Amino acid sequence: MITAIIVDDEQKSISTIQKIVTDYCTGVEVVGTADNITSAASLIASLKPQLVFLDVEMPYGNGFDLLNSLSEINFEIIFITAYNQYAITAFKYASIDYLLKPVNIAQLQAAIERAGQRTTEKLHAANYLLLKQNLKTEDKGEQRMALADSNGQYFITIKDISYCVANGSYTFIHLYNGKRYHASKNLKEFEEMLPQNSFFRIHHGHIVNVLHVSKVTSGRTGSVIMQDGKELEIAARRKKEFCDFLAG
């Protein structure tokens, strides 16, 4: 049984999460609730929960202030947020789980399942710092992304991504400086995350950052030549749309 606490300044939100957990998440028990970071810190110290549902914005201190006040974070965290879609991208870039208000059953069940799978992969403080920085950075190209592979976790700036190449359920991320990372997300996930004003999926197998395209070849389909010399095919059905995209 996973023990959990809920930290949220809205009683309605606490009640909703508590009811969903009780009725639909048999492997989780809510052992306490708090409506501010001071009482939350006391609860965490005394109850030692395995999972914390944490509201981002609260009066008299936010969720990050709570985490900063703790000597160690030895529990899973699922953030609760009412942020808009722009800010949700910041959560995805930082590889941090979240629930959108109003919380629904499917969202909560999926988040708990993911938390249960991360038995030994506690999120590093760097991920929370990355999230804080991204939420303050309006230019998505200047935001940074956490990439995980079998060797660890890396942090890259979005605008430095030159192109992405599908590799089954994984993706090769190529940077403008020649570095390459094998990320544990599929290409569709990157397509949904990356800024749509500069990244374009020209083929089922790759996405390009138009800021790093040096040439577009002619022909029925054609291809793009990236700044590192890599040639990537453009799917016939995407050719016109891509050219229109480049034309602005």
Automatic annotation (TrEMBL):
Transmembrane domains' residue ranges: none
Domain Response regulatory, residue spans: 3-116
SMART domains, alphabetized: LytTR, REC
Keywords on record: DNA-binding, Phosphoprotein
GO molecular function: DNA binding; phosphorelay response regulator activity
Keyword Iron carried by entry: no
Protein name: DNA-binding response regulator
Species annotation: Flavipsychrobacter stenotrophus
